[in-house]
């Protein structure tokens, strides 16, 4: 099978450079306004820069063809990038949350007007990048879109907080916003890390019901049983399955091919691209068992 470059690269590159430039603006603006809410989002954006940069780079690497060393190809590198990004974000958010809690007890004045101005730029910049990625079909694009939507929502919160502080002297709103943003982002990071963990632990693909698939197989002509089914996902999008199909004794080669063809069709519709189906007839030893010495199994 030959892999072809995915069109996601240009969109991810655009999102990366927008995020990269704006992160420096955000850090400078956070220091100038004295807002930990803005600095907390700057840490998040710095993590997004790593995420988008890795996504952009790994998108190209993951499209490389399989070889003798990596027989499944490089698909799982995208999950590795997500894991690294998640760890970086958790460390950064921990620092920001510590600083914000300290500010709760010792609120400091912030430049509300500067917060509002920077928030408007933040909504426009992150919104533009999210709009560019909105129609992407790859996992990298979808995850990046959610990151950018989170950023946009965070800036909407800063805009609201800055507007309130422009009229009322309530500096405690800034650290409260920072804590709220940190909790929201942390929740999504942990949720994504759980998905990455499931990929590396070789859990069944999300949404794939092994038992339901078995029942569909049993409805096919001459099929007696489906057993020893093993399935996992390479990157959350492309899946692998190996299974054994037990057919009635006397089933013809044409009937076996027809049953296997129908199973292939069902699996392709579920995003499986590496499919192994071994067949046995009733009375034969399955090769997952240890056959008696000298016994020769017939395989189809």
- Order of strands across the biggest sheet? 1-2-3
Apparent shape: elongated
And the CATH topology of the largest domain? Alpha-lytic protease prodomain-like
What's the number of structural domains?
2
Pfam families: Cation_efflux
GO cellular component, one term: plasma membrane
GO molecular function: zinc ion transmembrane transporter activity
Organism: Lacipirellula parvula
Q: Topology of this protein?
A:
Layout (H helix, E strand, L loop, with lengths): L7 H26 L2 H27 L14 H29 L6 H22 L5 H29 L5 H28 L9 H9 L4 E11 L5 E9 L5 H16 L3 E10 L19
Helix pairs in contact: 1-2, 1-4, 2-3, 2-5, 2-6, 3-6, 4-5, 5-6
Give your account of this protein's structure:
The structure is a single chain. This protein is mainly alpha-helical and 300 residues long. Strands 1-2-3 form a three-stranded mixed sheet, with helices on one face. The protein has two domains: 193 residues, Cation efflux protein transmembrane domain (Alpha-lytic protease prodomain-like, Up-down Bundle), CATH 1.20.1510.10; 72 residues, Alpha-Beta Plaits. 62% of the residues lie in helices and 10% in strands. Strand 1 and strand 2 form a beta hairpin. It contains eight helices and three strands; from the N terminus they run H-H-H-H-H-H-H-E-E-H-E.
């Amino acid at each position: 099978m030959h892999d072809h470059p995915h069109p996601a690269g240009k969109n991810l590159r655009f999102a990366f450079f927008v995020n990269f430039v704006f992160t420096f603006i955000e850090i400078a603006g956070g220091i100038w306004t004295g807002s930990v809410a803005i600095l907390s989002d700057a840490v998040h954006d710095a993590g997004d820069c790593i995420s988008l940069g890795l996504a952009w780079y790994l998108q190209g690497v993951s499209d490389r063809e399989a070889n003798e060393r990596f027989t499944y190809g490089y698909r799982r590198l995208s999950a590795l990038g997500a894991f690294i990004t998640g760890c970086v974000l958790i460390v950064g958010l921990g620092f920001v949350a510590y600083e914000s809690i300290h500010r709760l007890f010792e609120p400091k004045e912030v430049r509300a007007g500067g917060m509002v101005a920077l928030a408007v730029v933040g909504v426009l910049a992150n919104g533009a990048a999210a709009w560019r990625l909105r129609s992407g079909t790859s996992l990298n694009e979808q995850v990046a879109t959610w990151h950018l939507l989170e950023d946009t929502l965070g800036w909407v919160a800063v805009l609201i907080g800055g507007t309130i502080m422009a009229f009322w002297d309530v500096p405690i709103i800034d650290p409260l916003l920072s804590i709220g943003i940190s909790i929201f982002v942390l929740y999504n990071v942990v949720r994504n890390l759980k998905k990455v963990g499931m990929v590396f632990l070789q859990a069944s693909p999300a949404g794939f019901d092994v038992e339901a698939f078995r029942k569909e197989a049993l409805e096919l002509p001459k099929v007696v049983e489906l057993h020893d089914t093993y399935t996992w996902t390479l990157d959350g999008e492309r899946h692998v399955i190996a299974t054994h199909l037990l057919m009635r004794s006397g089933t013809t080669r044409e009937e076996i091919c027809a049953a296997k063809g129908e199973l292939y069709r069902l699996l392709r519709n579920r995003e499986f691209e590496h499919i192994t189906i071994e067949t046995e007839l009733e009375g034969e030893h399955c090769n997952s068992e240890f056959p008696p010495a000298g016994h020769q199994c017939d395989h189809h």
